[in-house]
Amino acid sequence: MYFRLTYTASCDRARIGESVLCGKRHLTIGQNPSCDVLIPEVNTHELIISASIVPSSSGESWNIVRRNDVQDIRVNGKPLAIACPLSNGDDITITDDNKITKLHFSIHHDGNYDPAYGIIHNHRRDRSIILTAVAVAFLALGAAAIGLVASLGDNDLRHLDLEPYNASVYHITTDSVFLTVDTVINGEASQAVLAAIELDKAAEGTCFLTDNGLFITARHCIEPWLNDEKWDGVTINESMAPEVALAAQAETANRLSGTTRYHLYSHCIITNGIERYEHKSSDFIMNKSRDQVVCLGTNDAPIYWRTIFPIANRRDMELGDVACIKSDGLTGDITLASLEDLALFDKQTDKDIAVIGFPLNDNNVNNVISKSYGNSQHLELDADSGAPIGCIQMLASINPGNSGGPVLALIGGKVKAIGIVSKADGRATQGAFWAVPITEITNPDSQGNVQDDAPTYRR
Predict the structure, then answer these.
(1) Residue 276 forms beta bridges with which residues?
(2) Fewer CB within a 10 Å sphere, N or C end of the chain?
């Protein structure tokens, strides 16, 4: 079972009649090149994502979800406020600056669509197609491996002894989440705990200690409610992680009441051997000015949810995936790169990196420190400030648990941290991931900004 989206009207007449197939994964519609279904660009705003088509947990039904407040989006002529289910034969119309795109939604039961190979499994010949594709993939991997081996001789970072840095890399765990409300007790402002949950599965990640005494990690390691890929975004249900449900309830109560009385914090544990340090997530310094509050749910029951992962057209949101806290008199061996260091690194021919962390293994255990090598893509730097415009795409073997770990590079003969592991890049090749530039910590313009306000978007 799968669905087909067919262009029935478009400013780009060459697309009329073209189709896009999809099955049990999210499909995005918009102007951004990363979208599965492209619509005409306009000059009145930057490239945006228009809508997503989201499968149910069974994969046998789909909802269309609005992703911005800019465009006129209709289903069978009716305005789409937030989300609605799609049925076979529905027509989707997107109008932006008088540019109209019409898409026809149809459901098919003649097989299952395989996005990895772009085929529908309903004929015996599928087996030969798959075998051919696998053979081609192995040849490509072999060529890549030969190129990688040939380049090792020129890689200085790989020949350095990085073991001394292991002592500055820590394991971080978030095991419980608390919902509080501002109140007054005996005439003094205070907070009362409304709910407390122990996570069914603790959030595991990596943290590192710098030579100036900062513990640094990825923000989603200590605030795991910022991301939930399993939630359909339509209703608060059993597929929604409990901590995400608490976060949505708190954000919704704040938005509907026009206050900020409700807060979330987690209990975090930083360990390295016999060392153990316990903190609240609210103790960490974070830059919340990059947050986005998304309006989900339905017209009658809106749900507000705060995130740092791109939902619509903002390119800088993931830069907020970093948190730091001053240690109690401790110092590590990891030096942070400056803006000037990043500029020098970007000019180097050798852009090799090393990632140190605690990746989860096949048994979901990550108590063993691991090191992997890779390389960095070209950095896109702002012409005026010299700061990275967005996260840095890199290639290295990482797994869940590596989040928050340092990305080390050799700059001017010295090893420095140029980034913090954020998350894997699901749209790129295996091993690709995004790193938050370390200048989000070293740049005074961003350090210490704990602004709690955030723009609201419909999705």
Answers:
(1) 271
(2) N
* Ramachandran sector of residue 135 (left: φ over 0; alpha: ψ -120 to 50; beta: rest): alpha
- Show the tokens assigned to 238: 């059993």
Q: Which helix (H) or strand (E) holds 72?
A: strand 72-75
Type of residue found at 288 = K
413 Ramachandran zone, left/alpha/beta (phi>0; psi -120 to 50):
left
**Consecutive H or E run containing 251:** helix 242-257
The pLDDT of residue 123: 44
Question: How does pLDDT run across 284-293, given as a tens digit for each residue?
Answer: 999 888 888 8
340 has pLDDT over 80: yes
Cα separation, 162 vs 170, whole angstroms: 15
What spatial distance separates the first Cα and last Cα of the chain, rounded to whole Å? 26
- Between 203 and 67, the higher pLDDT residue: 203
Please report which helix (H) or strand (E) contains residue 185, including its range.
Answer: strand 169-185
- Residue type at 42? V
| pLDDT of 263 over the 90 cut | yes
Backbone angles phi, psi at 310, to 5 degrees: -55, 130
Q: Is the predicted pLDDT of residue 155 greater than 70, yes or no? A: no
Average pLDDT (16-38) is 80
Q: Three-state SS for 334?
A: strand
Cα–Cα distance between 353 and 408 in angstroms, integer? 5
Q: Classify residue 403 as left (phi > 0), alpha (psi -120 to 50) or beta.
A: beta
Q: What is the mean pLDDT of residues 387-403?
A: 87
**What DSSP string describes 109-156?**
-S-EEETTTTEEE-STTHHHHHHHHHHHHHHHHHHHHHHHHHHGGG-S
Query: What pLDDT is recorded for position 366?
Result: 59
**Torsion 201-203-206-208 (CA) sign:** negative
Cα radius of gyration rounded to whole Å, the chain: 24
Whether pLDDT at 269 is above 90:
yes
Interval 11-31 mean pLDDT: 80
Torsion of CA 107, 296, 427, 406, to 10 degrees: -160
Question: What pLDDT digit, counting tens, does each position of 412-440 carry?
Answer: 889 999 999 998 876 555 678 889 999 99
Q: How far apart are CA 348 and CA 340, in angstroms?
A: 13
- In 377-413, DSSP assigns E strands to 392-396, 406-411
Instruction: State the Cα–Cα distance between residues 237 and 246, nearest whole angstrom.
Output: 12
pLDDT of 196 reads 93
Question: For residues 83 and 64, what is the distance between their CA atoms, to the nearest angstrom?
Answer: 6
Amino acid sitting at position 237: N
Q: Rounded CA gap, 218 and 405, in Å?
A: 8
